[in-house]
Amino acid sequence: MKFNTVTIKDIAKALGLSTSTVSRALRGGYEISDETKKVVLEYAEKINYRPNPIALSLKERRSYSIGVIVSEIANNYFSQAINGIESVAYNRDYHVIITQSHERLDREVLNVEHLASRSVDGLLISLSSESSDISYLKSLHDQGLPIVMFDRVTEQIETHKVIADNFKGAFDATEYLISLGHKKVAHITNAAHLSITRERLEGYKAALEKHGLPFNEDYVKYGKYRGIEQEEIDQVIKELFEMEDPPKAIFIAQDKISTGCLMAIKKLVPHCLSDLAIAGFTNANVVDLFMPGITAVRQPAFEMGKAATELLIQLIESKRPVTEFETRVFNTELITPGTVLI
């Protein structure tokens, strides 16, 4: 069965008005009398008239849609950031199209190219673990596609960026572990080239240095390009606890790795649980249920998603080329086991 939509022509015919008069009345044109506007708007409401988004986008050369690329929606941080993105976008009459890279560059490229071919008005992107060369994205940006980066960003593109204070979050978590009396603190992190990896590693090092503890390269374990598989996390835990001088605490730099490490520890070295302290970046709201408890570094994901979307819409709706960009940095929060989350 064919779906028939009501058009401006239908309203004009029913009311005995010209299509241009109806169009101006619906847009609140000053040249149309209040009485005519009232008649048109009441009739449009009565028949449940809605503007045709395709026709509107063709007329204005806008799709009123925003593309979003993240590594994985199931990640607590990204699901919360997407909620923030949608809260702003829909209030500004933009639709949101969400895609996942699953930490793969080829999927990220396909997603970006598909969104660009669908004529989205702009992109919000957090890079995958494989994305060291983002020339494909830079090419689109150079052609004029508005892009805002959040969480995992790159200096290869000059645009707005929204990030957490990864250095301080890592510093605070590591210092907390040290304050518990631990001098052997390992660090498990993501692919080495990622911005969040570098910043969190520096925070970890700075905390060690402040407290006079040596930096041990053997205590740092990087994920590979897709370093989120449980098998890889299992191997990392095995390597750490087979060392002659194994760590007594672990600082973990990514949400999914945090929960994966708990699973690996319980499976491979359960005898270490009672003496082991863990801190990690995670936006899970159930950290108090983890055993052993995790000291969580929490990012304001919802607020970061909102900020990134506001900046993107500014770029989209700017009447002039934007040449000055900002990097917004959000504070993290350290949540110790037993803290009541709101």
TrEMBL record:
CDD domains: HTH_LacI, PBP1_LacI_sugar_binding-like. One of its GO terms (molecular function) is DNA-binding transcription factor activity. Keywords: DNA-binding, Transcription, Transcription regulation. InterPro entries: HTH_LacI, Lambda_DNA-bd_dom_sf, Peripla_BP/Lac1_sug-bd_dom, Peripla_BP_I. This is LacI family transcriptional regulator. Gene3D superfamilies: 3.40.50.2300, lambda repressor-like DNA-binding domains (1.10.260.40). Pfam families: LacI (PF00356), Peripla_BP_1 (PF00532). Residues 6-60 form the HTH lacI-type domain. Signal peptide: none annotated.
